[in-house]
Amino acid sequence: MDSQTKAVESTKNYLTTAASIVGSAMLAHTIVKDYLPKELRTIIFSAFHYSFGRFSTEHTIVIKEAEDLSSNELYDASSTYLQTRISSNIRRLRASKNKEKKSITLSLDDGEELIDDFQGVKYKWQLKIPKENHGSNHGRHYGGNPGWDFSSNREVRWFKVTFHKKYKDVTVDSYLPHILEKAKEIKAADRRLKLYMNHNDGWKAIDLQHPATFETLAMEADLKKTILEDLTRFIQRKEYYKKIGKAWKRGYLLFGPPGTGKSTLIGAMANYLKFDIYDLNLGEVRMNSGLNRLLVGMKNKSLLVIEDIDCSIDFKNRNKDKKNESNKSHNDEISLSGLLNFIDGLWSTSGEERIIVFTTNYKEKLDPALLRPGRMDMHIHMGYCGPNSFRVLVSNYHAWHDEHPMFEEIESLLKEVKATPAEVAEQLMRSDTIDVALEGLLQLLQGKRNKGQGKKGNGEDDKDEKLVRVENEEERLESSAEDHETEEVL
Ligand SMILES: Nc1ncnc2c1ncn2[C@@H]1O[C@H](COP(=O)(O)OP(=O)(O)OP(=O)(O)O)[C@@H](O)[C@H]1O
Q1: Which residue of 317, 430, 456, 489 has the smallest Cβ count within 10 Å?
Q2: Ligand 1 center to 218 CA (angstroms)
Q3: Residue ranges of E strands in 51-174
Q4: What GO MF annotations does this protein's record show (predicted)?
């Protein structure tokens, strides 16, 4: 036999052997599939995986959509988090968009794999969707399926996360908490904010489309910075409020003439914090019981706004309310005490962050009880337009950030006469050409001066916006916590 014939023979033998192995494997597969019951097959495969897994360096965590009939927050968070880790090499994705979201969401489809990197550790994620997820689970059974939920006796969606087993602690202590935290941020950023208004003791919501931001808010830079820092500190202090056993809430009283930006500041706060606004019209609420229902019905991460508080309730009736306390059952009418008690009491049990904002054009008309330390944490005076606020408005309406020959005269007039940011904004909007708009504003301000109208004096409203009082909430709470401790020791 020459060498060429030998080679042909050996190839033939090789192919015959390979065919026989494949044939045997197929036969074995057919026998296993056709003759062994499903349960037995699952046990054999599980045993195989178990023995194999003992020598593997991999560790796997299963995150099911539901555990014991309740939804699994970690599954939900993983789903949200992974949407931001989608890469172009994933072949099949799912796309969705619902009313609550601003953008289209791309997510993993059944069986697709995604690799995530966290602090240098590689995580392989896979989503498993039950085959009959859209139909009933009738006739399906556990069969060793990690996605099986015993409480509901059905298969649920689940994620499989695989990583090197030496990173088990890092995964549980850092990676999974990181996912929960990130998911919260992603959801907050993608959520459409809502504006709720009360009607018949219930809330009705529309999408909040207030364009205001702290950047476009015309206000002294220092005050703006203080408010921003205060809000940021507040939302980061969950543990602190929990520790001292106080409601996680913060109150702001905004006061100043109409058109000075109280509503604009509220819009900027909501957009900054990504909080919904609950605009409570007390004129619509007749009884304390109705007010209770409304306050209980508020979701967390919300900003409760009560505008024109001086006109909303006859606060001077507060003492009368006290006298009438004995025949309270006959008098469930809404009162200042009802409102304040609720705000202080109810939220202390919710453990979630809430902000309350009162606005008024006439601070002096308010009941001193509302101004008392501890009621409102910050009193913010929204004043007439000063030179700084004017510059912000010019940049808002004309994207103009440089000097302009007319600025000097306008700014000196703004120090002299009363013009609200709303009036200034209105003039600036009248023309797209900055020279024309500034000319109109100049004429308005000169007119005010010549008529002797709107002259700035020494009154509170005549000053530019400022922080009247920031109560040091931290110290107050800490000292009240200490008092509490002392009482207990005694
Ligand atoms: N400080 C500000 N920064 C930016 N824009 C402002 C400011 N103040 C007023 N404006 C402009 O004027 C309009 C009216 O202002 P806004 O409603 O915020 O005033 P207000 O103090 O809430 O008035 P009111 O007391 O009548 O409710 C706003 O829509 C905005 O365009």
Answers
A1: 489
A2: 9
A3: 58-64, 66-67, 70-71, 93-96, 105-108, 113-118, 121-128, 148-149, 154-155, 158-164
A4: ATP binding; ATP hydrolysis activity
Distance 262 CA to ligand 1 centre (A): 6
Kindly state whether residues 483 and 445 are assigned to the same domain. no
d(CA 184, CA 190): 10
Q: Tell me: do 396 and 484 sit in the same domain.
A: no
pLDDT digits (tens, 9 = 90+) for 131-142: 754 444 444 555
Q: From atom 26 of ligand 1, which residue's Cα is the shortest distance away?
A: 258
The 10s digit of each residue's pLDDT in 258-285 is: 999 999 999 999 999 989 999 999 888 8
Spatial separation of the C-alpha atoms in residues 240 and 19, rounded to whole Å:
71
Q: Is residue 227 part of a domain?
A: yes
- Distance, in Å, from the CA atom of 466 to the CA atom of 481, rounded to the nearest integer, reads 30
The number of domains in the chain is 3
What's the start-to-end Cα distance of the chain, in Å? 108
Q: Whose CA is nearest to atom 30 of ligand 1?
A: 422
Residue 365 Cα to ligand 1 midpoint, Å, equals: 21
Average pLDDT in the chain: 78
Query: pLDDT per residue over 18-41, tens digit each?
Result: 556 555 555 555 555 565 565 555
- The average pLDDT across 66-81 equals 86
| Judgement on whether residues 60 and 150 belong to the same structural domain of the protein | yes
C-alpha of residue 252 to centroid of ligand 1, in Å: 17
Instruction: Tell me which residue range forms the domain holding 453.
Output: 387-462
Q: Atom of ligand 1 at shortest distance to CA of 308? A: 25
Q: What's the gap in Å between 459 CA and the centre of ligand 1?
A: 21
Which of 144, 169, 190 represents a domain boundary (last residue)?
190
Ligand 1 center to residue 144 CA distance, Å? Answer: 63
82 within domain boundaries: yes
Calculate how far, in angstroms, residue 411's C-alpha sits from the geometric centre of ligand 1: 19
CA separation for the pair 319, 316 (Å, rounded): 7
Atom 13 of ligand 1: nearest residue by CA position: 422
User: What number of other Cβ atoms are within 10 A of residue 359's Cβ?
Assistant: 21
Domain of residue 332, CATH code: 3.40.50.300
Both 407 and 372 in a single domain? no
Tell which one of 253, 260, 362 to mutate to probe ligand 1, the residue whose CB is within 8 A of the most ligand atoms: 260
How far apart are alpha carbons 173 and 159 in whole angstroms?
A: 18
Kind and range of the H or E run holding 203: strand 202-207
Q: Cβ < 6 Å from ligand 1: which residues?
A: 217-219, 258-264, 361, 382, 421-422, 425
Residue 12 lies in a domain: no
pLDDT (0 to 100) of residue 91:
84
Question: Does residue 6 have a pLDDT over 90?
Answer: no
**Overall pTM surpassing 0.95 (yes/no):** no
Which amino acid residue places its CA nearest to atom 10 of ligand 1? 422
